[in-house]
Write a structure and sequence with these properties.
About 30% of the residues lie in helices and about 20% in strands. It is of the alpha/beta class. Bound molecules: flavin-adenine dinucleotide.
């Protein structure tokens, strides 16, 4: 047999997940010097771009322009897009491996962590993932309802996703009216009665995970005051070392300066509190009515970091909605290793392992959030995907890639046809893109997204 990766026998790679990490992995493979390669890129949704479409906030449109890079990759004739094909449902991991010499999992972290406190299952208690997916028109979340008739909402966590959620709840809905926000979400936000967003962080201002730009954006909202108690914005003795990091110093100083402004006079308030842990979500008739919180003290964790310890002082704040933003985790896929503790696919340098300490599984790789867990911005995934592709190419060179049983171009097409799976092409996505933009133009929006897979499929049937 001809060597893999040569014109006589091109390397066939499947990438599962068409988010940033999947596209960056495809780009790295297609640009690899001296390699003859073809890439099949799968996504469970008919639409590509992962969290760039379904996660990044509608008021952060500039960030979404990164898709131009992915579109360039998709235009390469050596890449085929298979939209609306879900690994573990429409295809098994073995079926994919039999038709490709290597498989790269780029499936992200689509689930979230729970707080593990009483009342978390009450109506009105949701994950930020659900809320974000809802306002972004993600088909998984479009049918959810959020009671915005309540006066106050608690957002648990102080990372950038918590900032997005807080901003969307607190800003003037008209600011969003020209964006790609889902139409139903815009209507709900226009009618919102939310006046207070409690933003609750477990540790202090030096440990808050938001970036300086994200907290500054909250502080500059025209419709809401960022309110911080100056006494609570101080940095504890145990956290002083963190100020050596200029980014930490910047965001601490910003919050401390802002704390001097007091209550302000804007209609809405974002009340940022540090050293707080939720301990119970309280409800009546099955619905959230309040959140019981405990004040924390910060102590050294003995590893150079800081941990929060309950101080035994409790308080109850009335809220009608609780949105937890305490971390994302992956969703296990049948036939693909998954580490329950870390919540992602176990790997060494992007090579998938069955479990920590076990040898690499030949021909299986992972990139992006599925590899590292939910950390890093869109750009972080580029270097990370390049690193995984380097591992793959080193294995190709070392001759340790298991050649596919049938790597022919039509092997996957035949399999999908046999299984009666209708895969959408990138050309199909381009048609949807045009239709969304045209629908948006009618009301002055960037686009009006399709939010139901059935509507997308129906729109693609020739009239
Ligand atoms: C709410 C939110 C806002 C963010 N905002 C920003 C921002 O403003 N700026 C920034 O730089 N970064 C932002 N990020 C981070 C950024 O989105 C991530 O770094 C990036 O999307 C991770 O890329 P990924 O490809 O690993 O995962 P994802 O983007 O999640 O892509 C995973 C893809 O895999 C597909 N998939 C999952 N399971 C399967 C399966 N079984 N079969 C087939 N396909 C599957 C999914 O449909 C999805 O398309 C944000 C993240 C979140 C959660």
């Amino acid at each position: 047999m001809a060597a893999l990766g040569t014109p006589q026998r091109p390397l066939a790679v499947a990438i599962v997940g068409a988010g940033p990490s999947g596209f960056y992995a495809a780009e790295a493979l297609l640009k690899a010097p001296g390699l003859t390669v073809r890439v099949d890129l799968f996504d469970r949704l008919p639409t590509p771009f992962g969290l760039v479409r379904g996660g990044v906030a509608p008021d952060h449109q500039k960030i979404k322009s990164v898709v131009a890079v992915y579109e360039k990759t998709a235009a390469d004739p050596r890449l085929r897009f298979f939209g609306a094909v879900k690994l573990g449902c429409d295809l098994t991991a073995e079926e994919l491996a039999a038709r490709h010499d290597a498989v790269i999992y780029a499936v992200g972290c689509e689930s979230d962590r729970h707080m593990g406190i009483p009342g978390e299952d009450l109506a009105g208690s949701h994950s930020a993932t659900e809320f974000v997916g809802w306002y972004n028109g993600h088909p998984d979340h479009r049918g959810r309802t959020f009671d915005l008739s309540c006066g106050a909402v608690a957002v648990i966590g102080v990372g950038n996703v918590a900032m997005d959620v807080t901003r969307i709840l607190s800003r003037d809905a008209e600011d969003l009216s020209k964006t790609d926000i889902a139409g139903y979400a815009l209507d709900a936000l226009r009618a919102s009665k939310v006046k207070t967003v409690w933003l609750l962080g477990r540790r202090g201002p030096a440990e808050a995970a938001y970036s300086p730009a994200e907290i500054e954006e909250i502080g500059e909202l025209s419709t809401a005051d960022l309110v911080v108690d100056p006494a609570k914005a101080v940095v504890d003795e145990v956290s002083q070392g963190e100020l050596a990091d200029p980014a930490v110093k910047k965001k601490v100083e910003y919050v401390q300066e802002h704390a001097k402004k007091g209550e302000g006079s804007k209609e809405r308030k974002v009340r940022l509190r540090f050293r707080i842990s939720p301990v119970e979500i309280i409800g009546e008739n099955g619905r959230v009515t309040a959140l019981r919180i405990e004040k924390n003290e910060l102590v050294s964790d003995g590893k150079g970091g800081v941990k929060a310890v309950g101080a035994g002082v409790f308080e109850t704040i009335p809220v009608g909605l609780v949105l937890r933003s305490v971390g994302y985790r992956g969703i296990p896929i049948p036939g693909v290793p998954f580490d329950e503790k870390s919540g992602h696919i176990p790997n060494v340098d992007g090579r998938v392992v069955a479990a920590s300490g076990k040898p690499a599984l030949p021909g299986q790789y992972v990139v992006g959030w599925a590899k590292r867990g939910p950390s890093g911005l869109i750009g972080t995934n580029r270097a990370d995907s390049v690193a995984t592709v380097s591992s793959l190419l080193a294995d190709l060179k070392a001759g340790t890639l298991p050649a596919a049983t049938d790597a022919s171009l039509d092997a996957t097409l035949r399999l999908l046809a046999d299984k009666k799976v209708r895969a959408l092409s990138f050309a199909d996505w381009r048609k949807l893109d045009v239709l969304e933009k045209a629908a948006g133009a009618k009301t002055g929006k960037i686009r009006e997204k399709f939010t139901r897979v059935s509507d997308m499929l129906a729109a693609l049937i020739p009239q």
